[in-house]
Structure formats: structure tokens, C-alpha cells
Amino acid sequence: MDLTLSSSEEAFRDELRSWLEANNPGPEPPGDDDGFDFRVEWQKKVFEAGWAGVSWPKEYGGRGATLVEQAIFTEEIVRAEAPQLANVLALAMGGPTVIAHGDEEQKERYLPPILSAEEIWCQGFSEPESGSDLASLKTRAVKSNGGWTVTGQKVWTTFAHKAKWCMLVARTDQDVPKHKGLTYFLMDMEQEQVQVRPLVQITGEAEFNELFIEEAYIPDENVVGGVGNGWMVAITTLMHERATLAFGLQASVQILMRRLKELVEERGLADDPVVRQRVGQLQIEAQILKLNAYRGLTAIMKTGVPGPEGSLGKWHWSEVNQSLTEAAMEILGPDAPLKESDWSYPFLRARANSIEGGTTEILKNIVAERVLGLPRMK
Amino acid sequence: MNFDFNDDQQSIKATARELLTKRFKADHLRELAEAGEYDDAFWKEICELGWAGIFIDEEHGGQGLGQVELVILMEELGFALAPSPYFSNAAAGLVIQHAGSDEQKAKWLPGIASGEARGTVGIVDGDRAPLVPDADTASVIVLIDGDKATVIEGPAGEPVATIDMTRRFSTVPAAGGEGLEGDVGAGVDRAAAALAAELVGVAQRTMEMAVEYAGDRKQFDTPVGAYQGVSHRCAQMLLEVEGARSAAYFAAWAADAEPETLPLAASMAKAYASDAGWRVTASALQVHGGIGFTWEHDLHFFLKRAKTDGHLLGTAREHRDRVAGLSGLGSS
């Protein structure tokens, strides 16, 4: 057991840390459009300095670094409170999907503009009638001259109004079991047949969109991983991304923990025994999130697949993040519900944590069936 | 970066699992628990294997390994629920090794390492230490009072019956003894972290029992584990067992490699494992339904050990408060 970084990993971290200190542009400006443009500029800067796509192959503009270095990158960028990269979905999911399942032409065509933020991506998986039961999705792709004609509706498509490409899973075969009739496409968002409508959430922001697709066209060369393999392509990528994503999630919790403790001190509650119990427990859970992320990474490096703790990260994180923001609200007392309070937005936003990217209930099903080996749910 | 055991450590773990599975079959465990006895032959056997002194310096007759190896054995002993004086003896060894003078170490550690003159540790509350494991048979009793420790000759005190039938306890009056002048906390933290590992083993075992039962037991013609009310309860057990495991392993690593983080790491591990140990065993009982509440089922031995461990060397509440202080909150 050795939880220290190797000297080359340490050198990587130190170089990144000093680069971030010198180049971090600080908090993004208010407003959806200005905020997004700011993140695009930031990503261009990150890309030009050679830090985008840390673990991606060098020939497509990445750095060719190890999984540990990818995890360090994710952790450090959050730790420095630097802005998020604009093309987050392509970096976390779309690009890795193309690397794992795409052909050579696709890799050359799609990967470099992801890293430089020249082409933003969105994700078209969920539908109004297909949330947790994703494989039941109804968006149809029908073969037509050298490509596919797609019709359907998608929901929760973050960045759809900014995106050039949509990772779209659609049904290409109605006559086979539901998991087998799906295909993974890259759909061009710049066509009239795709309409985007913002979806206002409980925070009042429109972080997500609805997508209305009416006979949109996708050429054959935009199929990733083969016709009928869409489920496998979508799921394997999700699984492998969880290990490094866990680092970003836990790092964001460490920052909130620091703010929570500052709040407790400001409010003169640092010696209140009830508050101390609550903060002590959150501190422990935050540490466990971090330790599980490290254990998960070790398991992937050794066996190629996440260990049992790997399936727990997102579920556990959502509970810790919700309970941390709830604790802050309690400490704030009558100031808590004020819109100008620093905590009312993270508090409300945290309600989505146990739904987005797989509900806690679905994650528990996965743990019960695939990790513990319990019988399939009735 | 490698958050897993090395090959030697894996082999210690596998050997321990194999031996303990052979030695503590269900009937034998029940026989010992109901009689309130330990298996003397097993104790002799593991002493010959060097388990008792695994972390004790070689110059004092130990194996010269570390806290990680101790934690591996503690987790396996918890998994088997082995009734033995292993933990109490190790706790005494840890405190003496870290707080004793050279002379004191030379006097007591060899007997602890060989198992021939066993030790134990008690936490003083007022004029007595209320819950001291194995004080009725130990030769060396270390009494901890805050950051002070004294050693008295054992056996001493009065045996007390607890709900845990697999470990023997006494109440020991606190008076006199020879002081240990070194870093008492360094030993106590290591003992608390070792106990956290035992709780991981106990919880892991009852989770496995619950999962097996939930797969076998049918109601309404369906295995009960196919119902989410049961399966989600089992998933929650895994979350807590793995969390406690990460915290206990980290504390073990910190003890050996980064001792300045040990106080925080040990309290995190003991707080979380104390809660998880209780919740997981209690949840396993619920999954078993009525049979889990009967004397004839083995589950209650595990549940009672978990609950009692949670009250040894500091409760979850006490360790959580310490975590809050060590992570920068308030005056303490």
C-alpha cells in the first residue's frame, strides 16, 4: 500500500499547479452566454498550454498521460477553483467514446476540435418517456440515401444550444430486444430539423434543454461502434469515465467543506456540540469519497475494471453534497433562504445530484445485482 | 500510488482467512461463545505463527512489520469473529511500543510478542476502567487516562458480563502503577484504528450472510433479495462497509508512512466504522427477518461484537468531535 505520488506524478502535479496559479482567470462572469464564452476562452488557453485531454493519445492532441495523472488534473483544476472547461461532455464522454469505439477517420475528424473547444458537444440519451429505463428510448433512425433520417425527442441535453455535435442514441431496429436495436450516432446540431428549447429548472436557470428532432439527417460515417451496438458503446464509456470523474466530485466537496467550516466559525458555532457532530461526520464522509476514488483508480489500473467501491462514488457523493448544503442552510438560520445567500443556489442545485447521471435508486439496483449478485429485481 | 495490499500482505490475508475458516466453524464458535471461553489451542497456534507480535520490533521478539499487517489480521479475526485475546494483547503492545522507555519495552514487549505474558488496555473513567478486555488473564494492564498511561500487574479487577459473548471483559480499579512517559496517543490511535479494521471484518461477514439469505429465502414465490426494499438495504451495507474499509486502511497506511495524519485518520476510521459496524449488522438482522432474532442463528454474536467494539476506545460521538477539532473547528 502506497498512497504517495511517484516523483514523476509529483512533478506533473507541481507543474500543473504553478501553471494554474499563473493562468487561472478567476470566477466566470454572470449570465449564461457570457459564462459560456468565458469557459470557451479558458479551455482554449488550457489546450494551447497542452493540458486538455490529459490521458488522450498524443496523435489526436492529447498528452498521453496515465490515469493517475488524469485524476490529478481533475482534482487540481477543482482545487484551484479554476473555471470548468466549456466542452465538458465531449471531454468526459464523447471523446473517450470515439477513442474506444471510433474508426481512424472519426478520431482524426472529431478529437482535435473537442480539445480546442472549437466544436462543443451535447448528449442526447434521455427522453421524456425513457429516463432510468434508457434502453426503452423511442427516437427512431431510418435508413435513407447514404445515411439515416432521425425523428424523436430528447431531454436534459446540457449545452444543446451551444453544441455542434450531439451524441445521440436512437433506435435503428424495432424487431429485436430493446438493448439490441440501438445505434450511437454523432448528429450535426446545425440543421433546421433539430430544434432546441431551454428547460428551466428549480434554480431558475436553464442549464438543460429539450431537443425536438424532425427528420434530421445523419450520414453513415457518423455511426460510432457499428449499427446495433449503441447500448454497449454508451454504457462502456459511462463505466470507465466514472473513475476519473469521481476525483472531480470529491475535490468539489473538499472545497465546500472548507467553506462550511468558515461559515461555522463566522457564525460563532465552532464549539456547538451538535454542529461539531455534523461537521465531523461530513469531514469523514468527504475523506471517504476521496479514499474510495483512490481505491477505485488502483482497481482499474490493476484489473482494467472498477472495483466495488467504483460503483458507489456518484451515489455517495450526491448524499454528501446534499447533506453538506443542508447543514450550511441550517447554520445560516433566517439568512438561508435569501436568494443572495451563497448557499441557496448550491442547496437547490444539489437536489439534482441524486437524479442526474443515474438516479440513486438505479445505482442501488446496479450495486445489488452486479456487485452483490442479488437476484434481478422484480 | 497503489491503494491496495502488496503481494506479501495479500498472502498474509489469504493465509489468515484460510486458517480462521478452518478453526472457527459455526458449531465451534457457538460452543465458545455460549461458554464465554477462548480457544487456547488457537491462541497458541497463532502465537507460534508470529501473529501476536506482528507489528512489534524484532529486537523485542516481534516480526517487525507494521500497522497495515496488523490491520489485515484484525479484519480477518473480525470476519471469523474469533474469540481470542488477540486484540487486547495487540493494543497493549502498541501503547508500550510507542510510549514505553527502552527499559519498559524490553521488560514487557517480548511477553506480548510471544503471547506468554499477555497485555491489555483500559480507558480510565473516574477511579476505574470500566470495560477492559481480558484483564482477568492478562499479565500487563495498561491504563489510559487522557494522554497519560500507567502499567499495573495483571490479572486484576472484576469480570463483567457484556452483550458480547465472544470477548471477555473486566472492570479494573485505577490506582498506582508504573508510568509510560512517551507518546501514549500514538499507541491508542493505532489500537483504535485496528479495532476499526475488526469492525470492517464483522460488518463484511454479516453483509455476506444477508446477501446469501436474501438470495435463498423466498416469499410470494420470489427471492426476497429481488425486492428493492431488501436489495437497496444490502446496497447500503456495501456503501458503509467499503467506506469503513477505506478509512481503516488509510489509517493503517498513515500510521506506518505518514504518522502526522494518524490522529485524524484514526478518529475518522473509528467513528465511521463504529457506526457502520452497528448499522450493517442491524440491517443484516432485518434482512433475515424472524430467524435473525433467534438465539439459534449466529447473527447475534456478530451484532453484539459490533455494538461492543463501537464503545471500546472511544465512541463514534467522541471520535467525530475530535475529527471536527482536528480539521480546524473551534478551540479544541
Description:
The complex is a heterodimer of chains A (378) and B (332). The longest helix of chain A is centred in the middle third of the chain and has 37 residues, at 230-266. With 378 residues, chain A is an alpha+beta fold. In chain A, the strands form two sheets. Chain A has a four-stranded mixed beta sheet with strand order 1-4-5-8. A four-stranded antiparallel beta sheet of chain A has the order 2-3-7-6, with no helix packed on it. The relative contact order of chain A is 0.09. Chain A is 47% helix and 14% strand. Chain A has helices at residues 7-23, 32-48, 67-79, 88-101, 104-115, 230-266, 273-303, 313-332, 344-349, 360-371, and strands at 121-124, 140-144, 147-155, 165-171, 182-188, 194-199, 208-219, 223-224. Chain B has a four-stranded mixed beta sheet with strand order 1-3-4-7, with helices on one face. Chain B has a three-stranded antiparallel beta sheet with strand order 2-6-5, with no helix packed on it. In chain B, strands 8-9 form a two-stranded antiparallel sheet. Chain B has eleven helices and nine strands. With 332 residues, chain B is α+β, with helices and mostly antiparallel strands. The two termini of chain B are 33 Å apart.
